[in-house]
Structure formats: C-alpha cells, structure tokens
Design goal:
- 35% of the residues lie in helices and 23% in strands.
- The chain has 620 residues and is of the alpha+beta class.
- The strands form eight sheets. The chain has a five-stranded antiparallel sheet. The chain has a five-stranded mixed sheet with strand order 8-15-14-11-10.
- A hairpin with a 4-residue loop joins strand 12 (296-297) and strand 13.
- The chain is elongated, with a radius of gyration of 37 Å.
- The mean pLDDT is 93.
Amino acid sequence: MIKQDALVVYKGKPALVKDLSDGKISIVLQSREQVKVREKDIELIHPGPVKDFSCIEGGVCASVIREAWELLADESSPVQLKELAALVCGEYTPASAYSAYSLLRDGLYFTGTAAAITPRSREEVASQEAKRGEKQRETDERAQFLERLKACIKKPSDNRMQSGDMRFMQDVEALAYGKSAKSRTMKEAGLSETPEDAHALLLNTGFWTPFVNPYPSRFGLSLSHANVRPDAPPAEDRRDLCRLASFAIDSPWSSDPDDAVSIEGNILYVHIADPASSITADCPAEKEARDRGATVYLPEATFRMLANDALLLFALGLEEKSPALTFKMTLDESGEVTDTEIFPSIIKVTRISYEDADKEMESAATANATALRALYELAQRNYRRREEMGAVNIELPETHVSLEDKTVNIKPVAQCRSTSLVRECMIIAGESAGTWAAGKNIAFPYISQEADIPDAVMFGLAGFMQLRRSMRPRVLSTRPGRHQGLGLDTYSQVTSPLRRYTDLLAHIQIRAFLRGEKTLSTDEVSARLGFSDAATVAAVQAERASNHHWTMVYLSDKKDSEWDAVALEKKGNRWAVIIPALALETQVPLQKDVSPNEDVKLLLKSVNIPKGEAVFLHRS
C-alpha cells in the first residue's frame, strides 16, 4: 500500500507522495510540479519516508551492475526490485531502490516490472552492447562532424570536409531538394532551415557544385522519361497528302517535331502528330501523360511526357512518310476560317529551322520558297485580323539556355519571319479546332484569358512589360471563352500532343468522334484538366527556375563584366531593367535620372546562386 512520503515513479520519472485524500494521490516531481494521480498511474519504488529528492542521488559502479546480472543470469525465476536493490547496493534504501529501477529502465541487463525483474540472456546483452557501442560511435562521429562543419562554415578554405561526411548531410540535401521541410544538421549548425540556405551550405562545403540544379525536384517533377510505350498507329485509311510541300519549322535544338504546315490556294493545312490514333482515354500511356502534364525542357536534360519510343512512332519527319492528324482550313480573303475538316493523313515532311526557312523565303522562286512566302502572307493576314479584334502583342527578349560539358551557353533567340508564320498557323488551328468542337457539342479543353489593358501604354520594351503585367493568368475550361491576349472568342491548343497533355486530350476527343465512338463527358474532361493543370504549372515553374539557375551559374565567373540593359520602370529609388542578352529582369539603383526604354550600362558585382540573385551596379 502506498503511503505518504513514499518514493514512486510517474511516467518514468521519480516522484514523492505528499497527500492521500479524496480518492486521489498528490505527488510532487523533481521539477516541483504537483500532480494529482490515481494509484494505477504510479509505481511504488520505496515505501519511504522520503522527504526530498537528495536522498536518491548517486549511482552504481558498472562492474557491480554486471556482477549482479551475472549472478542472476543463470536463475530462471524473476526477482523483485527490493531484491535487486539489495544485491546491487548491499541494502534496500530509497537511493538503492531508484538505482535498481534505473537499471530496469535502462534495459541493458534487466527487463520486466518492479514486481518481477528478469535478467536478459547473455546473447541479448551482447547484442544490446554492440548496438549501443555503434550508436555511441555514431554520436561521437557526428559530434566530430559538427565541429568540422562549423569550422568549415567560418573559413571554408582552411577547413575542408571529409568525403565520409556526406552521410551526415543527407538531411541538408533533402531540404535543398525540397523533399523535406526540416534539417537536424542545419539546426545544429545554427543555420536557417530553408532550401536556399541548405543549397548554400552544400556549395560552401564542396558536396555540391554549381552544376547541381535543385529546382525540378523542388517542384516535384519526375526526372525521367515516361515509361509506358504506346502502341503503334493502327492500320487505317489515311488521306494521302504527300503531294503537298509540308514544312516542320522549328528551332535547331528541337528533337520532337509534332507539327507541319502546307498551303494550297486559300486552304491552310496544319498537320499534327497523331498519338491519339493509339492512345485512348484511360489507357496506361494517357494516364502517365496526365500525371506529368507536359514534357519538361531543361538546359541540362529533357523529360518527356510520353515515352521516348513515342517519338519514333508519331513525330513528323523522322521517316520518309509520317502519319498525321490534319486540320484542313479554308480561309476567306480577310483570313477568317470558313470551313474546317479534320482527318487522319499521311504526309511527307521537310524539317527546316526558322533561320533556314527565312533564307528560303528570300531565295529565288523555288517551289518551297513560293509555298513559304504564301504561308507567311497568310500568317500576316491572320495577325492583322487578330489585331483588329484586340489582340495584345508582346515582344520581349528571349534566350536559349543550354548546358554542354559543364559549360553554360546563353544565346538570344533570333526574331525570324518564319517564327510568326508558325505561330499564326498554330493559332488558326487552335481557333478552328475549338470552333469545330463547339459546333459538334464535343467536350473540349478551351483556353481563355482576361486582361486589364491600361489606357496609356508606353512604346518599346517598357510598354511590352506594361502589357505583360496587365494579362491575367490563362483559364482552362470546357466552355469556350474570350482569349484577350490572342484577340479570339474561341481558342484551344491542339498542335503539341507529344508534349502537352491538354493537346493530347483534345486529340483523344477528336479521334473518338471521328471513329464514331463515345467521347468523354464534360465532367470527365474537366476533371482531367484540373488534374493535369497542376502538373503543367509545376513543369513551367521548374523550367523558369532552372533557366534562371543556369543564368546565375553562367554569370558566377563574370564579376565586373559589363552588360547593356534597358530601363523599364522606376520603383522607389531603384529601376526595373532588362538585360536583353540574358533575357534577365532585375532592379538596380541608377546614378542619374533616365527615361523608360533608355539604354543603360550595368556592371556585374556579385552572384548568389542559391538565392538566384545577381547584383548589378549602374556604370555611368
């Protein structure tokens, strides 16, 4: 029976009984906290009297403990706490009772309860000692690692980390990659637990180089191609359009051509890769593409929405003849589409770069040059038509960032006439596809966009930045809506089914309708749009962040280099500027008053790769 001033254990901690009344037991802990408990909540260690905790202080020699265990190890019957205390300490006192209880709690030599303590077997003790020895070694090695880490943080050049230290940096790497929100190592080193600071630590300690790009992982992207190989296009009747000159015009670095254009009088043909000839709703390839949302294009690698084999099956111009889904559009003199027909086809494709297409247009009157010039004239008519309908034209500098043999290359993207040729033909196809689907009551992915255009828009780059800020985010929906940016009342994207899921979804609907099969319902299409859009947004964000990362890497060894910039807008005591050669927007303090669109010279002073910051100063 528990009495006043008895020594008990409450939640593994020693306590003294101070009062027994009202059916409750009042105890006091070493922290002086008083608690009322039930008898079943505590365990009696010594009946007392114990007036304070000073009488339980003290320990037991390790050799004595082991001798006591060895004496009891060969006995089969358990002992009580009182017996163990007497054996270990020679007497049963509050101090010896608590020491014996501590041995029981420790668990190395004994197990059980205060009423029935059993010695562990020799095998169990040996195993526990090995585990504890390993844990202690790990603790000691981690302490030594933290000493090296703190010294390295203070002066990296004089205090290098050891190669084996990376095992203690796994949590730092997980934080830098965005796979964890916390890091024990960062906390113990007195650093902020942020991805940026983790990135900086990995660079400063030499475990990472600037050529590690953490952003795809931070946005949760899969760093591999899709795995599901779609079936080859089935045998079916395809309209033979090999008589047409079909041009797949793209950047020289493009490796997945999925659209081509032809012209015949007032008829525009836009030929699109035809993966939906075999990829159907809810098939494995469609589900995988839906999860990914889009192909991810990074300077260091490309991770495709569809398996690599899909290119061999569906990309245009890789073989002498290519299967395609053709959008045949008849246009009137104003550029308005008066009729749209969609059908599977077989075509011969000429692959050509934007630069070479421009040169071809400027050449003598070859058949290809004539066709390209006709396509360009059609594109210009459509551009003027869209302008009259309120389209917003934004032309900002673009660059192509690439990584080859640990060398970052940044090249401005040339403004070619053929670029606008392709863009306008793709816009015509998107508008026509949306109108065609709406006319046939097919649930379809439409894109709309609103804009708050200011009354006064500046000219030049400053004006283009004004317009960009006025554009609201695009909206994916199953209802046609006004796309203010393009100046169209109906718009859908259908020209990149190999690299955008929404385009593939549109093709799946078109193909089902053409085969006379049941198309997906509005709710089914809407659900797919909602699911894939999150993945698409993540892919776009990762691409932008990656390009910015590699731009910082590119600049990191160019301190004091001079850059031409254009002033855009004054913000407080700083100016927003753009460096066209890098397509980089930043803010700098300028030493004199300037005007929007005025050229300024900048001097690069520092680069912080983890924070994505480049500091420029005005060079007057």
